[in-house]
Amino acid sequence: MSFLEFISYLWIIRLVNIIKMVSKSCKYAIRATVFIASRANAEERFGVKEIAAEIEAPPAFTAKILRTLSKYKIITSLKGPYGGFYCEKYQLDLAVSEIVNAMDGMSVFKECVMGLHQCSDAHPCPMHYKYAGTRNELMKTFQETSVGSLAADLSKGSVFIKNEVLEN
Amino acid sequence: MSFLEFISYLWIIRLVNIIKMVSKSCKYAIRATVFIASRANAEERFGVKEIAAEIEAPPAFTAKILRTLSKYKIITSLKGPYGGFYCEKYQLDLAVSEIVNAMDGMSVFKECVMGLHQCSDAHPCPMHYKYAGTRNELMKTFQETSVGSLAADLSKGSVFIKNEVLEN
DNA sequence: TTAATAAAGGACAAATTTGTCTTTTTTAGA
DNA sequence: TCTAAAAAAGACAAATTTGTCCTTTATTAA
Questions:
Q1: Parent domain of B156
Q2: How far, in Å, CA of A105 to CA of A102, rounded?
Q3: pLDDT digit string (tens) for chain B, length 168 residues
């Protein structure tokens, strides 16, 4: 057994691999999508500048991200005057994991937590079940949480932190 | 309240900020340090090439990382023939957090989990205590875990994953 | 004292991520 | 049909991280 594999048995190494998961672009994308979804009423559309300002991201970069989201049909866009970005009803049911997938791909949920090449369900490394479990729960959370539900929390004026409700 | 601040109340946004924490360099550094520490017996020293091979990192890059570790006195180096890298006794008592500090700095443990500028202990954001708590536990773990204890686990031929012992 | 060995130092290079800018295409309304 | 507004597209640029290479310095042993 190589040292890399050996050391990978240590939970501290795993720990080092578990924290943080998505790119800055993806965070911007989540913010933007939730913002747009939270205003999905009527025929309202939002321009790049407004969205960028709301999510505190660089406008030009926000435009790029919105294009990606639009390409993946996570949000909808309309060109021309009175155009902009908005959410169609079905898009409110999309999971947050779709955003991660569009921006970063899903490898973050799939690769061996140790970075070991030989690890698989068939030949699992010792952490495969124990910690892959943690990650799977996380993925499940991403998959079970819809854009619309997040938007609804915001629109209600109360937001949820896990099981706790904060008023504001 | 800005939308950024507003959306930051959502646990999903927090979730997105908590996973992953340290750079690739830092992971290499942890691997390297634990490897060297695990062989801290006698007068044995290890060269860049050997260490790089053991931790499966690029040799030249490993050299750079070892220099940093040496500069921060996390490991000790000796030039010339029969030289190389090794751990002095006191260095086995150093915490893993020292490695993180040397490689990435400690800001990862200190910045507001939401990226909000106005957040502090005096003016905490709603997640400050709830999730900063999670991170603080993590930091505590890093601080309470010594290089030597990790090395000892390895040397014993059994490694710990949290409270569970794996034989190999 | 010299030759060989190995880390130290630092410039440089590649890759990736983040961010910008200009031109093109689409759409709405006058 | 023309004009203005706004996204689409994609080249370009900056910043950061990752990685390489060459020269210098220190150490050991003959």
A1: 3-167
A2: 6
A3: 545 444 444 445 544 444 566 778 887 888 888 889 888 765 789 999 999 988 888 999 999 999 999 999 999 999 999 999 999 989 999 988 898 889 887 665 555 444 445 555 555 444 444 445 555 666 776 787 788 887 776 666 544 444 344 444
CA distance A93 to A25: 22
Mean pLDDT of chain A: 72
Q: Is B125 left (phi over 0), alpha (psi -120 to 50) or beta?
A: beta
CATH value at residue A137: 1.10.10.10
Task: Count structural domains, chain A.
Answer: 1
Residues of A in contact with B10 (CB under 8 A): 34, 150, 153-154, 159-161
Considering just the CA atoms, what is the radius of gyration of chain A in Å?
A: 19
N residues, chain B: 168
The answer to whether the CB atoms of A19 and B19 lie below 8 A apart is yes
- Chain A CB contacts of B29 under 8 Å are none
Q: How far is the CA of A145 from the C1' of C2 (A)?
A: 72
Determine whether the interchain pair A161/B127 forms a contact, defined as Cβ–Cβ distance below 8 Å. yes
Among A9, A154, A164, the residue with its CB nearest the CB of B161 is A9
> Considering the entire predicted model, what is its pTM?
0.71
Indicate the residue of A9, A30, A166 with minimum beta-carbon distance to B126: A166
Q: Give B102's Cβ-side CA count (13 Å radius).
A: 25
Give this complex's ipTM.
0.70
In a domain, A12, yes or no: no
